[in-house]
Amino acid sequence: MSVVEVMIVAGEPSGDMHAAAMVSALRARRPDLHLVGVGGGRLAAEGVELLERAEKIAVVGFVEVIKHLPILRRLMQRLRDRMDLGRVKLVVLIDYPGFNMRVAREAKKRGIPVLYYITPQVWAWHKSRVKELRDTVRKAAVILPFEEKLLRDAGIDATFVGSPLIDATQDLPTRAAACAMLGLEASHPVLALFPGSRAGEIGRHLTDFVATARAIVAQRPDVQVIVSAPPNVSIDAAVCPYPIVRDASPTVFRAATAAMCKSGTTTLESALCGCPLVVAYRTSAMTYAIARRLVTLPDIALVNIVAERRVAPEFIQHDLRADRVAPALLPLLDMASPERAAMLVALAEVRARMGQPGAAARVAAMVDGLVA
């Protein structure tokens, strides 16, 4: 009996997490499948044969990608070679659009169907990718409520599967229990910093995130500060004097009175955990200049995009300064402030829009249906 392979490509830490949950559900349905591809520690723990570790290719930004072109080219060739062996019957792509859209083209050339889970954000920029998605992707599993109609109207077989973050935030501890787990005093406010999931992001954000925390503590000495970071990225203690919590973001959000988050899925996770937040992001000057020409939305934070209004303040590029961010955070650390109360109501509305638990199982069922 010939081996049937499914190729999975998850090029970032968040993609690795969501892909691993899908693989766990898929194993229960199809233990006969051999799974191969690109991912991190979670996919490796699920027994996926990794051709490359996601940590080596987790980059963001136009300029930053250029620096990684040699490794990306080599990886693409290895994926082509694997497809050419004839065993790969389905390619599952998770997020990471710059690279994964190229993988989709290569799979299409070889007649291999593609399932794209967490599709490119064509509603924000790169609208040219809509046609490419239609031409190369057999099915799309989308995680934002408005994406299904948008893609279906463009001729793409898209299904809203719900956000995988719903599952990750289902069984949350109480704030008191979360504080106990992290060695924090539940009677005092907690500010959580989420500077990023990649080394480059953390490098661009950490100094200003720490400076903001220092400004907060100068005015509120009772505030406790913690930093959430992925397990594989080192943080210089000389830059960051605060405790680092690894790979436990839902617990950190539950313990936190408020959070300062880099833009991305972290902002939705904050909403799902009921943690008020401000959003901050900085990229290279050239990447930002290009993005300003391409992005058509007024906000960049997913929590604001899903809400269809600005729920959380955004501090982008030169606005990411302690003297601007701290005044927005201080009211959120006050349990009795009207700003905090209003944001909690808005975050509950966002949670209601994000679908039901079970995204990973729904995508696993889609994989099962597509594999010959």
End-to-end Cα distance: 13 Å
CATH class of the largest domain: Alpha Beta
Write down the secondary-structure element order: EHEHEHHEHEHEHEHHEHEEHEHEHHEHHH
Number of helices: 17
The biggest sheet amounts to: 7 strands, parallel
CATH architecture of the largest domain: 3-Layer(aba) Sandwich
Shape, principal axes of CA atoms: globular
CATH topology of the largest domain: Rossmann fold
CATH H-level name of the largest domain... which superfamily? Glycogen Phosphorylase B
Major sheet strand order:
3-2-1-4-5-6-7
Average residue-wise pLDDT = 90
Please estimate the helix content. 40-55%
Percent in strands: 15-25%
User: Total domains, how many?
Assistant: 2
Write the layout of secondary structure elements.
Layout: E1 5-10, H1 13-29, E2 34-39, H2 41-45, E3 49-53, H3 62-67, H4 69-84, E4 88-94, H5 97-109, E5 114-117, H6 129-136, E6 139-142, H7 147-153, E7 158-160, H8 164-168, H9 175-182, E8 190-194, H10 199-219, E9 224-229, E10 244-246, H11 249-255, E11 258-262, H12 265-272, E12 277-281, H13 285-294, H14 302-307, E13 314-316, H15 322-329, H16 338-353, H17 359-370
Parallel strand pairs: 1-2, 1-4, 2-3, 4-5, 5-6, 6-7, 8-9, 8-11, 9-10, 11-12, 12-13
Helix pairs in contact: 1-17, 4-5, 5-6, 9-11, 10-15
